[in-house]
Design goal:
It is built from 4 helices and 46 strands. By secondary structure, the chain is mostly beta strands. It is elongated. It starts with a strand and ends in a 15-residue tail after the last helix.
């Protein structure tokens, strides 16, 4: 090792920053804390011939004795590798390999920056002790003071009589004072002894020992608790504990105490064996639910997995089971929302190649609140072959499916379905439009076991149905004006002729089929049912058009679509399934609109109107005002007549109006609220109001929720209904950033809390 002395004026001395700077970004809750900057790195680069392990000292003046002590004064800069020190005065004891420095002292390396009253460094061991120190960790918000700060040879920090925070010095909302803190620079976490947490300079907690993360690296420990009170659960306290088992495994255990019900235990285990293989397990358990009459045990099991075995093979699995139908309605599960009523159990392996794919799948769906259980798929095999432009611009596809259906109730028989679907298509595409003609043959065979509940089913069925589909579209455009603004308008008329042959299907059971929605895009489907058990015959023409407006920047400002089906012949299958009870020559008239009305005002609407009987079958509309980032005011309305109640089989009309808003009160304070009203029942169905404050170093949210509850009949309370029709409650979430919290609270998830998620209604293309 060499020590070289240079007597020179520091080139950047006038640029030395002796005070801390704080800058806040425009984004809510994000700020950057910038420590003092040492100029010695640039000085070192200005000197030629310096090796990486050389010690370079630059100062205004110096005095040295051979093999003894060297003294330096005036803008002293000391540099060795990535470590840099600037001070007013410094001395080097060559026999002891010891550096002493004082006066406007700044120490900096790759991990942290420290200012101090004085420094004593052992150059041979790369260790140092600083007194009266202030420190900043690079890339983190962590900063603090220390009576004594030791930098070990492993580049770790040991602080005595110290504190730390993630807040800027002029606004220390919270501060952790400790007798000793040890920060591991490699593991990026800190150990704290004899700590006292202050919030707004008020001591609120004593902690004899704790560990805290100083980066985004995962670290075991308690996360911040959550508090709430509600009419259904009483006072509720959640205290999650996070266990970082290994880089590819972790577990979160959450004891959730509810004064009205008991102790609710939730466990989530996650794994990522590789970037292509990941999944999680969830187990939830509530013993002796005191809220219900007979105090039943309630539980949930959940597993999901998705993986890529190689470039061709994919696997996925999903399994969920709960103890009762009202599990998600009563308990705050980590797996599903209260509005979810279907539990999907799926296992699938798929193989993909350039021209074909193959998959094997098993599936079971549990529908909460319904006595009738769906059929299980045990298993289903799919093979699809694609050959584009195989002859004279013709495309050929061939799809096959073999499915075995089983039912948990022995009164229902099992069935096997084999389906083959070859098709030949001629697609013609040009800038002015497109025309696609396609011929299909739907060949389906069933083998059905005898069923005491469905004796009318045939044991074997051979169903052959031809299909012809011709779909065309033409593109026109012109220059126009909208509200005195120059625009480019497109006009895109579209037609489709569809012919599907008729086959009597009364002898076929319904295993996986249901009627599809008739929105605008649904008018151009070639099927009226999902699944294959029912194929509706058709002889019809669909007519529709879409028009769009683009501004000078080629951004879509408006899109309007309208269409209707003209029936040349009544569907016998639909009539047999009681889908249509009277003859119709046309379908509903389906229209959709998305537009920017003016500046920050947007409208989205859709309607399905029965032109033959003058009735609306479905309509919904939203009016959005979005004047800037984080600002939203949305009015909404929806109407659906004759909706069947699955519990009572009665028909009800849905007529609901809503208001949703999020608005910044200040740079750090946000308000989010919604209100939904049932016009027919003349009652509120959901109210939500939440206020959130978020700064650089902490966040708090306080909210109130009032909502209608969905309750199903189940076996937990036979003959007794003790569940409230409505639920209301107060919720408090608090996060101190840098002390193991679950991260900043987001305004977006406040918008999604409740029965009605916020959906940006516009789908305008950029």
């Amino acid at each position: 090792m060499q020590i070289r002395y240079f007597m020179a004026y520091c080139l950047l001395a006038n640029g030395l920053i002796n005070s801390q700077q704080v800058m806040a970004s425009e984004a809510l809750g994000h700020c950057a804390i910038i420590p003092p900057v040492s100029p010695t790195a640039n000085d070192r680069d200005a000197v030629a011939g310096i090796q990486a392990d050389d010690i370079v000292i630059i100062s205004d003046s110096s005095y040295a004795e051979m093999d003894n002590t060297a003294h330096f004064t005036g803008d002293v800069s000391f540099s060795q590798g990535s470590r840099h020190i600037s001070a007013d005065n410094a001395s080097v004891n060559q026999p002891k390999q010891q550096l002493n420095a004082s006066g406007n002292l700044v120490f900096k390396d790759d991990m942290f920056t420290v200012t101090a009253d004085s420094l004593v460094a052992q150059m041979a061991s790369n260790s140092a002790t600083l007194s009266g120190a202030k420190y900043w960790l690079h890339g983190q918000q962590v900063n603090g003071d220390a009576e004594e700060l030791e930098i070990t040879k492993d580049n770790n920090l040991v602080l005595s009589g110290t504190n730390f925070t993630t807040c800027p010095p002029e606004s220390q909302s919270w501060l952790l004072e400790a007798r000793k803190i040890r920060i591991d620079s490699e593991e990026e976490w800190g150990e704290v002894w004899d700590a006292k947490l202050r919030v707004a300079d008020i001591p609120i907690m004593y902690i004899p020992y704790m560990t805290v993360p100083i980066s985004d690296k995962r670290k075991s420990g308690f996360l911040f608790p959550e508090f709430s009170t509600s009419t259904t659960n009483g006072v509720q306290i959640s205290t999650p504990y996070y266990w970082n088992i290994a880089p590819e495994y972790d577990l979160t255990f959450t004891p959730d105490y509810m004064s009205a019900r008991g102790l609710f235990l939730k466990t989530e285990f996650r794994y990522m064996n590789s970037p292509e293989q990941s999944g999680q397990f969830n187990v939830e358990y509530l013993a002796d639910d005191r809220k219900l009459a007979n105090s039943p045990d309630r539980y949930l099991y959940h597993w999901n997995h998705s993986g890529k075995i190689n470039d061709n093979w994919r696997v996925q699995a999903n399994y969920t089971d709960v103890s009762d139908n009202n599990y998600f309605n009563d308990l705050n599960s980590q797996v599903a929302r209260a509005t979810d009523n279907q539990l999907s159990r799926i296992g699938e392996a798929s193989y993909f190649d350039q021209d074909w794919d193959f998959s094997v799948r098993v599936q079971d769906i549990k529908v909460l609140g319904e006595e009738e259980k769906p059929y299980q798929v045990m298993p289903q095999l799919n093979f699809n072959y694609y050959n584009k432009d195989f002859w004279q611009n013709l495309d050929f596809t061939f799809g096959t499916e073999v499915t075995n259906f089983r039912h948990q109730d022995a009164l229902y028989g099992s069935a096997t379905r084999v389906h083959m679907e070859p098709s030949i298509a001629l697609p013609i595409h040009a800038p002015f439009g497109s025309l696609t003609s396609e011929i299909k043959l739907l060949q389906t065979n069933y083998w059905q076991d005898e069923s005491s509940l469905q004796p009318e089913l045939d044991k074997t069925v051979n169903r052959t149905i031809p299909q012809l589909q011709i779909n065309g579209q033409i593109n026109f455009e012109r220059q126009t004006q909208f509200l005195s603004t120059p625009m480019r308008q497109t006009f895109e008329p579209q037609f489709q002729y569809l012919f599907v042959g008729y086959e009597d299907q009364s002898g076929i059971g319904i295993y996986d089929s249901a009627q599809l929605q008739e929105d605008y895009f649904g008018l151009f489907r070639d099927r009226r049912f999902s699944g294959l058990d029912r194929v509706a015959d058709a002889n019809q023409m669909t007519l529709g058009f879409t028009t769009r407006l683009y501004n000078d920047n080629n951004r879509e400002q408006m899109k309007f679509s309208v269409g209707q089906i003209l029936y040349f012949q009544e569907s016998k299958v639909l009539k047999a399934q009681s889908v249509t009870t009277q003859e119709q020559s046309t379908s509903v008239l389906a229209a959709e609109l998305d537009t920017r009305v003016y500046d920050d005002w947007f409208v989205s609407a859709s309607v399905q109107h029965d032109t033959e009987h003058g009735e609306n079958k479905k309509s919904q509309a939203t009016l959005d005002y979005r004047p800037g980032s984080g600002k939203l005011l949305q009015f909404s309305y929806r109407y659906i007549p004759d909706l069947v109640n699955n519990n009572t089989n009665d028909k009800v009309n849905i007529s609901q109006a809503g208001l949703r808003t999020t608005w910044p009160i200040s740079d750090d304070l946000y308000f989010v609220g919604n209100w939904y009203y049932d016009i027919n029942e003349r009652r509120n169905i959901e109210n939500y109001a939440g206020i959130q404050y978020e700064s650089c170093c902490w966040a708090v949210r306080f909210s109130y929720h009032y909502r209608i509850k969905t309750n199903y009949d189940d076996d937990l309370n036979p003959g007794i209904d003790t569940r409230e029709e409505f639920e209301s409650g107060f919720y408090l979430n608090f996060v101190i950033k840098g002390l193991g919290g679950s991260g900043p609270l987001g305004v977006d998830d406040m918008l999604n809390e409740g029965l009605f998620n916020y959906r940006k209604p516009l789908y305008l293309r950029n």
